[in-house]
Structure formats: structure tokens, C-alpha cells
Design a protein that fits this description.
The chain is elongated. A hairpin with a 7-residue loop joins strand 2 and strand 3. It has one domain: Dna Ligase, domain 1 (2-Layer Sandwich), CATH 3.30.1490. Strands 1-4-2-3 form a 4-stranded antiparallel β-sheet. The protein is of the alpha+beta class. Helices cover about 50% and strands about 20% of the residues.
């Protein structure tokens, strides 16, 4: 009998989580938390990195949620050239360092579109 409150709490928690996930996906579909920019070939790498830094710094972080998905597309490719999930923006400096050589190589020769899906910003919109 003592397990019933725990089962109920877990069930309610799981239902609440699914509802929030659905609300976040809906917010992303309407554009909340979606940031995108396109640059021509040979755009200086510091310009791309500055846009990434500013966009990530501006993300909303309700309840400490600051994860994001970074996707880079080249003009001549169907698949993403870069797809990086970051669970918290405090990890961005380390990921930025590892991403820089690949980003530089791609941007030197291709038109590049960078997209950031900011989960905290989308959650903030969903909670409004």
C-alpha cells in the first residue's frame, strides 16, 4: 500500500514532463527559440563565432534550462555539416573550441547557414 503515493507521483511527473515537452516543441515550431543566419563563402570566422556567442548568451534560461541544438548547413549539401547538442550553455566555451576548426573549413568554401534551437527560450515562451 505504501507504494501508491510514489506511483501516483511518478505518473503525474511523467505526464507533466510530456506536456512540457509538447509545449516546447510547439513553441519551437512557431519560431520561439529558433535563431538562424546565413553567410557567404569566406566570411571571417570571428564573425560567425561572434554571432554564435551572442545568440547563445541571449538565450532565456527558465528554471536553469539552457540547452540548445546547433546545426550548420552548407549551400550544396542536403545533410547537416554540423549537428551539435549542448545540454547547458556553460559548456559552450569547450564546445566552441572543438567546433572552430570544422566551422572554419566549411565557412571558407561554402555559404553556411547556422541554426540554433534554444530549448530554454522555447520553454520560456511555452510557460507564458
Amino acid at each position: 500500500m505504501a507504494d501508491h503515493p510514489n506511483i501516483l507521483r511518478r505518473t503525474v511527473d511523467a505526464a507533466h514532463q510530456r506536456a512540457l515537452e509538447g509545449a516546447v516543441l510547439q513553441a519551437l515550431q512557431t519560431g520561439a527559440g529558433v535563431n538562424e543566419a546565413t553567410w557567404p563563402p569566406a566570411t571571417p570566422l570571428p564573425e560567425l563565432l561572434a554571432w554564435l556567442d551572442q545568440t547563445i548568451a541571449a538565450m532565456r534560461t527558465p528554471h536553469g534550462i539552457s540547452g540548445f541544438l546547433l546545426i550548420a548547413f552548407c549551400d550544396d549539401a542536403q545533410d547537416a555539416a554540423i549537428e551539435l547538442t549542448c545540454t547547458t550553455r556553460t559548456r559552450w566555451p569547450v564546445l566552441r573550441e572543438s567546433l572552430t576548426p570544422t566551422l572554419a573549413r566549411i565557412a571558407a568554401e561554402h555559404t553556411i547557414t547556422l541554426t540554433i534551437l534554444a530549448f530554454g527560450t522555447a520553454l520560456d515562451a511555452a510557460l507564458q
